[in-house]
Task: inverse folding
């Protein structure tokens, strides 16, 4: 009997190790050398225009994933959408800055408890450098917990975490350690590739790194041709799991007001992202290059196993 048990345990150990050795693609049912891509729209909740463009890109385009800025004014519309679409793939875009000229927001946690995160008017600082200069890490943690808990309380089931403007990817390792700590505690994946992982390195803060590359257009691409950047990026995608970060929106008065005096990642940028990722050209490239669009929800299911 003991011998049979030992043999059974040996086969179980071998099976677990074989599963662990499989690529993410294989574990999801694709060939080992498959190209998997999460097309990920940032900034849900910031304005109505961004919400509506993203929802339409879900329905009519190649976008299957997004992330939510919990402190922003149009969060209730996102919560209503999440309840109507319980299979949504929407994470929390952990937000500690408020970058626009006239559209500003502050904390979810009580302001008096996170005062080191706020400027003289009670808003978040406009950039990461000012945040890092003033913030107390314990108040950062309080605010980020409040954001995740508020989203859940409003009926959103977050599928992942990521960081608005990359403020949690500081040279101060405490920010990355907090990011990983929250992902573990809430049992959801955090967007991390090996470059981001190097910011941490403290035992006990390791999490599975499933993303090979995090891609996205930058200022030179916007100033030349966004559609060319995206087409080339898709055509040159290598096997593995990648994230393409985009920003959907419409170039209308609401969006123009949001991005007043801030041309980059503004109204025209978001319209171009929306146009490309809802286009037949994008769908055709994905098909021609045999790129499989996947979601954070699928990756999260694997990690839970």
Result:
């Amino acid at each position: 009997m003991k011998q049979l048990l030992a043999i059974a345990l040996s086969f179980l150990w071998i099976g677990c190790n074989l599963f662990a050795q499989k690529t993410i693609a294989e574990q999801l049912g694709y060939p080992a050398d498959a190209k998997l891509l999460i097309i990920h729209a940032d900034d849900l909740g910031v304005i109505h225009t961004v919400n509506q463009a993203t929802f339409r890109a879900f329905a009519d385009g190649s976008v299957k994933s997004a992330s939510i800025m919990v402190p922003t004014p149009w969060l209730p519309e996102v919560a209503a959408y999440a309840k109507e679409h319980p299979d949504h793939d929407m994470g929390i875009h952990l937000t500690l800055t408020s970058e626009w000229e006239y559209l500003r927001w502050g904390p979810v946690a009580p302001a008096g408890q996170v005062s080191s995160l706020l400027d003289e008017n009670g808003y978040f600082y406009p950039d990461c450098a000012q945040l890092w200069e003033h913030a107390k890490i314990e108040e950062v943690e309080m605010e980020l917990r409040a954001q995740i808990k508020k989203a859940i309380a409003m009926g959103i089931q977050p599928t992942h975490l990521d960081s608005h403007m990359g403020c949690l990817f500081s040279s101060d390792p405490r920010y990355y350690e907090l990011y990983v700590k929250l992902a573990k505690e809430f049992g959801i994946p955090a967007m991390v590739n090996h470059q981001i992982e190097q910011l941490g390195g403290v035992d006990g803060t390791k999490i599975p790194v499933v993303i090979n590359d995090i891609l996205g257009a930058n200022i030179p691409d916007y100033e030349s041709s966004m559609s060319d950047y995206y087409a080339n990026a898709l055509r040159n995608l290598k096997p593995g799991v990648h994230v393409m970060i985009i920003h959907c929106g419409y170039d209308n008065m609401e969006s123009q007001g949001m991005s007043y005096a801030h041309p980059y990642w503004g109204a025209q940028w978001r319209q171009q992202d929306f146009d490309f990722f809802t286009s037949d050209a994008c769908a055709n490239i994905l098909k021609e290059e045999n790129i499989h669009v996947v979601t954070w929800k699928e990756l999260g299911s694997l990690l839970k196993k």
Remarks:
- The longest strand covers residues 35-44.
- Residues 29-99+106-304 form a domain with the TIM Barrel fold (CATH 3.20.20.370).
